[in-house]
Specification:
mainly beta, 5-stranded antiparallel β-sheet, binds zinc ion, 89 residues
């Protein structure tokens, strides 16, 4: 039972990772959250029900491969074909 006010999200809630940390072992790469979830440093999770959630977030960023390496070039919409618009008044 969660003693916090407001109560931590339940283990089945969408925001379950927002529960407070009760025990943290960064040397071993895991933490126990208030709602019973064991969360690992690779963002994988072990739920109280025994179910697992695979790692789902990147844990490091490579400077060799930036997320956005293509320049964004603005290209205006091509002009509409004649006759497809109402004529200007
Ligand atoms: Zn709590």
């Amino acid at each position: 039972m969660c003693p916090h006010t407001p109560a931590c999200p339940d283990a089945t809630a969408q925001d379950r990772e927002a529960a407070r940390t009760l025990v943290s072992h960064p040397d071993q790469g895991w933490s126990l959250l208030c709602n019973g979830i064991v969360i690992f440093e690779d963002t994988g999770e072990l739920l109280p029900s025994g179910d697992t959630i695979a790692p789902h977030r990147p844990t490091d960023l490579s400077f060799q491969q930036p997320a956005f390496h293509q320049p964004v070039i603005f290209t205006p919409e091509p002009p509409a074909a004649q006759g497809s618009q109402a004529p200007a008044a």
